[in-house]
Amino acid sequence: EAQVTQNPRYLITVTGKKLTVTCSQNMNHEYMSWYRQDPGLGLRQIYYSMNVEVTDKGDVPEGYKVSRKEKRNFPLILESPSPNQTSLYFCASSFSNRDGYTFGSGTRLTVV
Amino acid sequence: AQSVTQPDIHITVSEGASLELRCNYSYGATPYLFWYVQSPGQGLQLLLKYFSGDTLVQGIKGFEAEFKRSQSSFNLRKPSVHWSDAAEYFCAVGAGRGGGGNKLTFGTGTQLKVEL
Question: Which residues of B touch A102 (CB under 8 A)?
């Protein structure tokens, strides 16, 4: 089944403890992206990637890192999480910029 | 920079009534436009998209949207709403041809409630 897989689905962590949210797609898509969703703010793009080793900042990149070493994987790294990064995170992928993204099921992160 | 405005935060319609959700975008060139739906606790599902050609586009679940360049709008419509359409709807704009990358910008969403 064609899909974007994120792990974990739920995560509670403490301030300052480094974490990684994994994302993998099996559709051979060129583009991948991370979004965060907060009530009243919609979805805001954190980072996106056009291909292996090619990434660019979205609208809210501060406090996040990404890497694209393989085409299928695009992990999101929070090196020192803070409570304002408590949010619902979505990974997405697409074949081209006119196809629209296919989204994963989301990761609900709570930082205490 | 591109942006999207969804002026209606909440909309309530009766089952069987028609629906129109508004979306206005800002982008300097021809945009790529999308509508997504998010059911509670779920990810986002693509309803339809526009990037060129016929300005009236058909999507899944009986939805359609019309691109109006003069009004910078891409409103979503459905002739007869079903109770299962209750969800949150997001409009999004992406860089068009030559824009590079896939920097898709979303609106803040419209929550649809369907009264039986």
Answer: 46
Q: Closest approach of chain A CAs to the CA of B77, in angstroms?
A: 19
Distance from CA of B11 to the nearest CA of A (A): 15
- What confidence tens digit (pLDDT) does each residue in A47-91 have? 999 889 889 999 999 999 999 999 999 999 999 999 999 999 999
Length of chain B: 116
Q: Phi, psi at residue B45, to the nearest 5°?
A: -115, 135
Tens digit of each residue's pLDDT (9 = 90 or more) over B12-68? 999 999 999 999 999 877 789 999 999 988 889 999 999 888 899 999 999 999 999
Q: Which of B49, B104, B108 sits opposite A45 (nearest CB)?
A: B104
A82 with A15: CB under 8 angstroms? Answer: yes
Query: Does the CB of A75 have a partner CB in chain B at under 8 Å?
Result: no
Query: If DSSP codes are grouped into helix, strand and coil, which group holds residue B61?
Result: helix
